[in-house]
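Session log. Operator J.P. requested a structure for one protein chain; no other inputs attached. Running the standard single-chain path with token output.
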Amino acid sequence: MATVSAKQNSGMSALSLVYCAMFAALMMIGANITTFVPFLMIGGVPITLQTFFSILAGLILGSRLGATAMAVYMAVGLAGAPVFSKFSGGFGQILSPLFGFVISFILVAYIAGKIVEKNGSLRSYIIAGLVAMTVNYLLGTNWMYFAYKLWASAPDAFTYKVAWIWMIPPLPKDIILSVLAGIFGHRMYKVLKVRRGR
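Structure written below.
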């Protein structure tokens, strides 16, 4: 009996790793949609599907596994793989004005996961998506502003207001996708029956 139980736990652990790898791969794809659709670039900010996938990771995998998947994505990129936006990668990316968004994806998945772990209703899933998206915008945009002001070459007439103006075009898309992530995540969690680590 103990042997069967150990095998089941091992299987769940292996399945969790597969899900983590899957979402890390989805982030790599979502980061580079602008390569195939070049006009999805406003100012210095590419319009990607990463916010959607990071929220979905937290909703489906839970706070711990979702954050782990996003951390794996970040680590792979920092190690040199071209998985960040515009197929960039390497440790030097930590100085990029956009790297705050990469860091935020870990928090996005964690927060989204925590909210639905406490309440599994559809309403909570949608709220979790919108709250997590807000965290993504707050951390990413503030990092971008301070990066441009402190160590990167700021565009002419760049201000804090301009930084937020750049974020207006992708905002409707991210609001809609955050709501859809909540609806889709609520359904998929029940189908996949992921064992959330807490």
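Operator note: The beta strands are 41-42, 45-46.
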